[in-house]
Amino acid sequence: MRKLVQLGIVAIAMTLLLLAGQAMAAPSVHLNWGSEVNPGQCDGPPGKLVINVTHQVTNDLDSAVGGGFWATDNYNKHIQVWQVDTNTFCADVRYLGSFVTDDGLSPQGTDTIAAGIAGTFEGGYRATITGTLNPDPSLRTRGNIGTFDYGCDVETGSCTSLFSWTSTYFTSVDSFDYDWWGWIYHGGTNGSWVNASTGNEGDITD
Fold it and tell me: What pTM does this model have?
Protein backbone atom coordinates (compact mmCIF):
# COMPACT_ATOMS: atom_id res chain seq x y z
CA MET A 1 0.00 0.00 0.00
CA ARG A 2 2.83 2.36 0.92
CA LYS A 3 4.48 1.74 -2.47
CA LEU A 4 1.23 2.62 -4.24
CA VAL A 5 0.98 5.88 -2.28
CA GLN A 6 4.61 6.70 -3.06
CA LEU A 7 4.06 5.97 -6.76
CA GLY A 8 0.98 8.18 -6.71
CA ILE A 9 2.94 11.05 -5.16
CA VAL A 10 5.71 10.65 -7.73
CA ALA A 11 3.14 10.65 -10.57
CA ILE A 12 1.51 13.85 -9.26
CA ALA A 13 4.89 15.53 -8.88
CA MET A 14 5.88 14.59 -12.44
CA THR A 15 2.58 15.93 -13.76
CA LEU A 16 3.08 19.25 -11.95
CA LEU A 17 6.62 19.53 -13.31
CA LEU A 18 5.35 18.81 -16.84
CA LEU A 19 2.66 21.47 -16.58
CA ALA A 20 5.18 23.95 -15.18
CA GLY A 21 7.53 23.17 -18.05
CA GLN A 22 4.76 23.75 -20.57
CA ALA A 23 3.88 27.08 -18.96
CA MET A 24 7.54 28.12 -19.07
CA ALA A 25 7.85 27.02 -22.68
CA ALA A 26 4.85 29.07 -23.83
CA PRO A 27 4.58 32.22 -21.71
CA SER A 28 1.54 34.40 -22.24
CA VAL A 29 1.87 37.99 -23.41
CA HIS A 30 0.27 41.00 -21.76
CA LEU A 31 -0.59 44.60 -22.65
CA ASN A 32 -1.68 47.16 -20.07
CA TRP A 33 -3.45 49.26 -22.68
CA GLY A 34 -6.02 50.68 -20.28
CA SER A 35 -3.37 52.75 -18.52
CA GLU A 36 -2.53 54.46 -21.82
CA VAL A 37 -5.95 54.93 -23.40
CA ASN A 38 -7.42 57.23 -20.77
CA PRO A 39 -7.80 61.01 -20.35
CA GLY A 40 -5.20 61.11 -17.59
CA GLN A 41 -2.54 60.65 -20.28
CA CYS A 42 -3.66 63.62 -22.38
CA ASP A 43 -1.15 66.40 -22.91
CA GLY A 44 -2.56 68.81 -20.35
CA PRO A 45 -5.95 68.81 -18.58
CA PRO A 46 -8.44 66.96 -20.82
CA GLY A 47 -11.05 69.72 -20.49
CA LYS A 48 -14.59 69.26 -21.81
CA LEU A 49 -15.78 65.90 -23.14
CA VAL A 50 -17.20 66.84 -26.59
CA ILE A 51 -17.63 63.37 -28.15
CA ASN A 52 -18.62 60.17 -26.37
CA VAL A 53 -19.99 57.57 -28.81
CA THR A 54 -19.89 53.85 -29.48
CA HIS A 55 -20.53 51.92 -32.66
CA GLN A 56 -20.11 48.45 -34.07
CA VAL A 57 -17.80 47.63 -36.98
CA THR A 58 -18.08 44.49 -39.10
CA ASN A 59 -15.83 43.07 -41.83
CA ASP A 60 -12.75 45.19 -41.12
CA LEU A 61 -9.22 44.05 -42.02
CA ASP A 62 -6.31 43.53 -39.65
CA SER A 63 -2.75 44.05 -40.85
CA ALA A 64 0.26 41.98 -39.79
CA VAL A 65 3.81 43.14 -39.07
CA GLY A 66 4.79 42.41 -42.65
CA GLY A 67 1.99 44.61 -43.96
CA GLY A 68 -0.34 41.90 -45.24
CA PHE A 69 -3.85 41.26 -43.96
CA TRP A 70 -4.04 38.22 -41.69
CA ALA A 71 -7.58 38.45 -40.23
CA THR A 72 -11.06 39.90 -40.54
CA ASP A 73 -12.32 41.82 -37.48
CA ASN A 74 -15.70 42.58 -35.92
CA TYR A 75 -15.67 44.87 -32.90
CA ASN A 76 -17.21 47.55 -30.74
CA LYS A 77 -15.49 50.94 -30.92
CA HIS A 78 -15.77 53.56 -28.17
CA ILE A 79 -14.67 57.08 -29.11
CA GLN A 80 -14.14 59.80 -26.52
CA VAL A 81 -12.75 63.23 -27.39
CA TRP A 82 -11.81 65.98 -24.94
CA GLN A 83 -11.25 69.60 -25.96
CA VAL A 84 -7.86 70.55 -24.52
CA ASP A 85 -7.68 74.00 -26.11
CA THR A 86 -9.53 76.04 -28.75
CA ASN A 87 -8.42 73.86 -31.65
CA THR A 88 -6.65 71.03 -29.81
CA PHE A 89 -8.32 67.77 -28.81
CA CYS A 90 -7.32 64.55 -27.07
CA ALA A 91 -8.97 61.36 -28.36
CA ASP A 92 -9.20 57.98 -26.60
CA VAL A 93 -10.49 55.22 -28.88
CA ARG A 94 -11.06 51.72 -27.47
CA TYR A 95 -11.70 48.46 -29.33
CA LEU A 96 -13.23 45.20 -28.09
CA GLY A 97 -14.04 42.43 -30.53
CA SER A 98 -13.23 39.21 -32.36
CA PHE A 99 -11.19 38.05 -35.35
CA VAL A 100 -11.10 35.17 -37.83
CA THR A 101 -7.82 34.41 -39.56
CA ASP A 102 -6.97 34.10 -43.23
CA ASP A 103 -4.30 31.60 -44.31
CA GLY A 104 -0.80 32.87 -44.88
CA LEU A 105 1.98 34.39 -42.83
CA SER A 106 1.36 34.71 -39.08
CA PRO A 107 0.75 38.25 -37.71
CA GLN A 108 4.25 38.51 -36.22
CA GLY A 109 5.79 36.87 -39.28
CA THR A 110 7.49 34.00 -37.43
CA ASP A 111 5.43 31.17 -38.95
CA THR A 112 2.26 30.46 -40.92
CA ILE A 113 -1.37 30.55 -39.89
CA ALA A 114 -4.37 28.60 -41.15
CA ALA A 115 -7.68 30.09 -42.18
CA GLY A 116 -10.66 29.97 -39.83
CA ILE A 117 -8.92 30.37 -36.46
CA ALA A 118 -11.18 32.48 -34.23
CA GLY A 119 -10.14 34.66 -31.32
CA THR A 120 -10.72 37.91 -29.47
CA PHE A 121 -8.83 41.19 -29.22
CA GLU A 122 -8.85 44.46 -27.29
CA GLY A 123 -6.91 47.71 -27.15
CA GLY A 124 -7.00 51.10 -28.80
CA TYR A 125 -5.15 54.35 -29.24
CA ARG A 126 -4.68 57.85 -27.85
CA ALA A 127 -4.25 60.71 -30.28
CA THR A 128 -3.83 64.49 -30.35
CA ILE A 129 -5.96 66.25 -32.94
CA THR A 130 -5.58 69.81 -34.17
CA GLY A 131 -8.59 71.03 -36.09
CA THR A 132 -12.08 72.49 -36.02
CA LEU A 133 -14.96 70.68 -34.38
CA ASN A 134 -18.12 70.29 -36.46
CA PRO A 135 -20.88 72.30 -34.70
CA ASP A 136 -23.61 70.27 -36.41
CA PRO A 137 -22.42 66.72 -37.19
CA SER A 138 -24.66 64.27 -39.06
CA LEU A 139 -24.45 61.79 -36.19
CA ARG A 140 -25.12 62.22 -32.49
CA THR A 141 -22.22 63.08 -30.17
CA ARG A 142 -23.44 60.89 -27.28
CA GLY A 143 -24.50 57.24 -27.18
CA ASN A 144 -24.56 54.52 -29.81
CA ILE A 145 -24.42 55.62 -33.46
CA GLY A 146 -25.12 52.21 -35.03
CA THR A 147 -23.28 49.56 -37.04
CA PHE A 148 -20.90 50.11 -39.95
CA ASP A 149 -20.09 47.27 -42.35
CA TYR A 150 -16.72 48.10 -43.88
CA GLY A 151 -17.25 45.48 -46.60
CA CYS A 152 -13.59 44.46 -46.68
CA ASP A 153 -12.20 41.48 -48.61
CA VAL A 154 -9.17 39.91 -46.94
CA GLU A 155 -7.96 38.39 -50.21
CA THR A 156 -7.93 41.63 -52.22
CA GLY A 157 -7.40 44.07 -49.33
CA SER A 158 -10.19 46.29 -50.62
CA CYS A 159 -13.06 47.79 -48.58
CA THR A 160 -16.31 49.18 -49.98
CA SER A 161 -17.62 51.39 -47.17
CA LEU A 162 -15.16 52.63 -44.56
CA PHE A 163 -16.41 55.05 -41.91
CA SER A 164 -14.30 58.04 -40.86
CA TRP A 165 -15.31 59.40 -37.48
CA THR A 166 -12.98 62.40 -37.80
CA SER A 167 -14.67 63.48 -41.04
CA THR A 168 -18.01 63.25 -39.27
CA TYR A 169 -17.12 65.20 -36.16
CA PHE A 170 -14.59 67.71 -37.54
CA THR A 171 -14.98 70.20 -40.38
CA SER A 172 -11.18 70.25 -40.76
CA VAL A 173 -8.25 68.31 -39.30
CA ASP A 174 -4.87 70.02 -39.53
CA SER A 175 -3.01 67.24 -37.74
CA PHE A 176 -3.74 63.82 -36.26
CA ASP A 177 -0.88 62.41 -34.16
CA TYR A 178 -0.93 59.01 -32.45
CA ASP A 179 0.51 59.39 -28.95
CA TRP A 180 0.11 55.68 -28.17
CA TRP A 181 -1.53 52.64 -29.78
CA GLY A 182 -1.73 48.96 -29.02
CA TRP A 183 -3.85 45.82 -29.30
CA ILE A 184 -3.61 42.34 -27.80
CA TYR A 185 -4.99 39.32 -29.66
CA HIS A 186 -5.99 36.08 -27.92
CA GLY A 187 -5.93 32.98 -30.10
CA GLY A 188 -6.33 30.33 -27.40
CA THR A 189 -4.04 27.35 -28.00
CA ASN A 190 -2.80 29.08 -31.17
CA GLY A 191 -1.08 31.77 -29.08
CA SER A 192 -1.40 35.47 -28.32
CA TRP A 193 0.03 38.51 -30.05
CA VAL A 194 0.68 42.07 -28.91
CA ASN A 195 0.93 44.74 -31.60
CA ALA A 196 1.78 48.10 -30.01
CA SER A 197 3.69 51.32 -30.57
CA THR A 198 5.98 50.23 -27.72
CA GLY A 199 6.83 46.93 -29.44
CA ASN A 200 5.40 43.61 -30.61
CA GLU A 201 5.39 40.34 -28.69
CA GLY A 202 4.20 36.78 -29.19
CA ASP A 203 2.44 35.41 -32.25
CA ILE A 204 -0.62 33.46 -33.39
CA THR A 205 0.22 30.40 -35.51
CA ASP A 206 -1.25 27.07 -36.53
Answer: 0.86
